[in-house]
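Hi C.,

You asked whether I'd gotten around to modeling the 235-residue construct. I have! Everything is below, sequence then structure, no commentary in between.
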Amino acid sequence: MSGKKRELEYAFPKTVPVLAGYLVLGAAYGILMADSGFGPLWSVGISMIVYAGSLQYLGVSFLAAAVNPVYAFLMSFMLNARHLFYGISMLDRFRGVKRFKPYLIFALTDETFSVLCSEDPPEGLDRDSVLFWITFLNHCYWVGGTVIGALLGSVIAFDTSGMDFALTALFVVIFTGQWEERQGHPFALLGLAAAGACLLIFGQDNFIIPAMAVILAALFAVYRKQERGKEEKAV
């Protein structure tokens, strides 16, 4: 069995929870675009190039209403500012990547981040290829769901209310799987505590960025403490 095939077979099961969520959410996006008068090529092209689920949903109304580009940019930046924290936290993991790095950076969605941040391929598998396949498969799921939704939405009228809950369910499934795989849960508990506290303080619409800032600061403090411990041992 070739190396690439082994790495693909290892990566695919890791992405199954994302597959279930992305097909539904991507299809819902394609249907919304069709209902707004945009053809399948528009929907699929945006899913391939933009590839930012919640932003794409917001973008449907932007395109339909011909929103001012400056306003659209500011709203897009605010909505996706959390990816700044994702990117910073992945610096060490991507530092040693020799292939596919530009694509891995481009395609780092919430769900892909949740899979990659805890991924440690076994010996004998090429780490770069495993990270690529996980990322690429997730991208394909989103585009595939968009294709299905765009084609169906062009011929059938759908009621999509409540379909966006699939994203919440997807996060719960991924979190539960990672909880069961690991012995200790300090960082998971840190994330829950930070999100809960910021939700109470800042409210439902504004808690994500403060929560990510708290988590990042705590992780950085832990990282610095570990580095100092290594330096002391070396001395």
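If it helps when you're writing up: The mean pLDDT is 82.

Thanks,
B.
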